[in-house]
Every structure is written in structure tokens, then in C-alpha cells.
């Protein structure tokens, strides 16, 4: 099992995703002899998981059942243990596209946090790229490094425990892209420029407050960055459902010329025919603001 290479069969020491329902998933470290308790009963790793194919339907001790899925960055984002506020798929998709990430890219990231974006970056740049991720908090950095080893992507990432605003990313002139998710990104712009490759490169800064965006944009301008722009991504998910709608009864067809006997016949009973159709309904509430994404390009001169 690896977050960047898919396997067919669940093995001992794998990280599997238990799918209990549309809004309920949980990660499990598969271990011989271990058990996992769910609301549907116990899952016994030795008999229920190890040797089974990913995607299998597993019956729990109470008779309920779950699906066991191969881990992906998307599933990890909705099931990971939160050490910090995380980025979600909507922003992650925009970031990976706008930074022009692809297999072989070298990326610098700060801060690592809970590793939601990190896993998406690693899958995108595998198998030959590399992620240099910086985390100021020692315990979070150690936990992130441990998770990367468990997820078998540690060969693609270097974790550093340091202050990016003072000490930079630990590399110079190698990065194709930079991502900043820190309280004062404007203080790290100089280090970001130094970490980017000599000719070109893209930068993205995530900030929840517009005042942070203003200071960051000023710093990017002062350091010669171009194509500076800020966007905000808002997601609106529609619910697809089947509904039953009655067919309207417009009465008899008055355009036809009825026979004389037909004029004396009683009117037909109203039709009760209905039809089932697929439709969508908009959400009652629109999720609010997550953050601003500020992008910029280092000139190729």
C-alpha cells in the first residue's frame, strides 16, 4: 500500500480507509490480531481485512457492513486526524493546477500542518518529484514525518522543523513551485524567491484575511514577482435525487370535433398519473469563506 501507488490486496501494516457512510469514513492501521470497533460491530483485522481485496464489503460482528477502500489523498483529507485547520479538495484542486504541478516537479511547502495538501502534492509529483515541507511546530513535524513513512511516500518528501520566515526552506534555486500557509507569508517571500529555480517558477499563498493578502501582494511586488492575482473558491454542491411529479390534466381536447353521442357522455375522471425523474436541489446553506489564494510568477530573467 502506498498513497501514490495502488495495490490490490490489503496487507499487514497497510493504512486502509473504512467507509461507513456518505459522511463517515475512518483510517485504520491494519495489524495482525488487532480489532477496530465501529457502530456496526467489530472488524477483526486478521480475518476481515488482511488478504482481502481493496473495495471489499466487510460484514461486522453485529451484522452491519462497511467497505474497505484504498487510501487516496481525497479520502485522507476527509478522515485525517486534525492537528491544524486543513485545506480541502476544492482549494487543493485549484492550487495543484495553478502551480502547474506534474510528475517530477520540486515543491516547497510551509507549513505542513496536518498534511492534507502534502499528500495531494506527493501524488501529483510522483514518481520522480520531491516535496520540501517546513513545519514550525516540532511535534507536528515529527507526526507528519511518521505519517509519510507509514504511507510509504517518505522517499518523496523531506520534512524540516524550522521557522520558514527566518531560516527559509533549506534549499536554494531548485523549486518549481512554492506554497505558503503561514500567519505572515509576506515575511517568507524573500526565502521563497531564493528557493525557486533561477528561471521562473510559481508561488501560492493561502490566507484567511484580506489584510494578509494585501501585505503579501506588496511583498511579492517588492521582490519582482509578476502576474499577481488573488481568487476565492466557493463550492456549491447540488443534491441529485429522484422525485415523483404528477402529470397535469388539461381536460378534454377541445380542438377535436366530438361525435354527437360523445357530447352526452360524462367527463372522464381526473388522471392521477405521475412520473419519476432525476433532478437536483441546491443546498439550503452555502459554505462560507475558507481563504484567499494569491498566486504569482517569478520572472524568467
Automatic annotation (TrEMBL):
What gene is behind this protein?
TRMT61A
* Function as written in the Swiss-Prot or TrEMBL entry: Catalytic subunit of tRNA (adenine-N(1)-)-methyltransferase, which catalyzes the formation of N(1)-methyladenine at position 58 (m1A58) in initiator methionyl-tRNA. Catalytic subunit of mRNA N(1)-methyltransferase complex, which mediates methylation of adenosine residues at the N(1) position of a small subset of mRNAs: N(1) methylation takes place in tRNA T-loop-like structures of mRNAs and is only present at low stoichiometries.
Q: What keywords would UniProt list here?
A: Acetylation, Methyltransferase, Nucleus, S-adenosyl-L-methionine, Transferase, tRNA processing
Please report the name of this protein according to its UniProt entry.
tRNA (adenine(58)-N(1))-methyltransferase catalytic subunit TRMT61A
Keyword field contains tRNA processing: yes
Is Kinase tagged as a keyword?
no
One GO cellular component this record assigns the protein to is: tRNA (m1A) methyltransferase complex
Record-level Gene Ontology MF annotations: tRNA (adenine(58)-N1)-methyltransferase activity
Organism domain of life: Eukaryota
Amino acid at each position: 500500500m502506498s498513497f501514490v501507488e495502488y495495490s490490490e490486496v490489503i496487507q499487514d501494516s497497510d493504512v486502509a480507509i473504512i467507509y461507513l457512510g456518505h459522511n463517515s469514513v475512518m483510517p485504520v492501521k491494519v495489524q495482525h490480531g488487532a480489532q477496530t470497533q465501529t457502530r456496526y460491530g467489530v472488524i477483526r483485522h486478521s480475518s476481515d481485512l488482511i488478504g482481502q481485496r481493496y473495495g471489499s464489503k466487510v460484514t461486522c460482528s453485529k451484522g452491519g457492513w462497511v467497505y474497505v477502500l484504498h487510501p487516496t489523498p481525497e479520502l485522507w483529507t476527509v478522515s485525517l486526524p486534525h492537528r491544524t485547520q486543513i485545506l480541502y479538495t476544492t482549494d487543493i484542486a485549484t492550487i495543484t493546477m495553478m502551480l502547474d504541478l506534474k510528475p517530477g516537479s520540486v515543491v516547497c511547502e510551509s507549513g505542513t500542518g496536518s498534511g492534507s495538501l502534502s499528500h495531494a502534492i506527493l501524488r501529483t509529483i510522483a514518481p520522480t518529484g520531491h516535496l520540501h515541507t517546513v513545519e514550525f511546530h516540532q511535534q507536528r513535524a515529527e507526526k507528519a514525518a511518521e505519517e509519510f513513512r507509514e504511507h510509504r511516500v517518505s522517499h518523496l518528501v523531506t520534512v524540516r522543523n524550522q521557522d520558514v520566515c527566518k531560516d527559509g526552506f533549506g534549499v536554494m534555486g531548485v523549486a518549481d513551485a512554492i506554497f505558503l500557509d503561514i500567519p505572515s507569508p509576506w515575511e517568507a517571500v524573500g526565502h521563497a524567491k531564493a528557493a525557486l529555480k533561477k528561471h521562473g517558477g510559481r508561488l501560492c499563498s493561502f490566507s484567511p484575511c484580506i489584510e494578509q493578502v494585501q501585505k503579501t501582494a506588496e511583498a511579492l511586488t517588492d521582490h519582482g514577482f509578476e502576474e499577481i492575482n488573488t481568487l476565492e473558491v466557493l463550492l456549491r454542491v447540488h443534491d441529485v435525487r429522484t422525485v415523483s411529479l404528477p402529470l397535469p390534466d388539461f381536460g378534454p381536447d377541445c380542438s377535436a370535433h366530438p361525435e354527437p353521442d360523445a357530447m352526452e357522455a360524462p367527463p372522464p375522471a381526473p388522471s392521477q398519473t405521475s412520473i419519476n425523474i432525476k433532478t437536483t436541489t441546491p443546498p439550503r446553506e452555502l459554505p462560507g469563506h475558507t481563504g484567499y489564494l494569491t498566486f504569482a510568477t517569478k520572472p524568467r530573467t
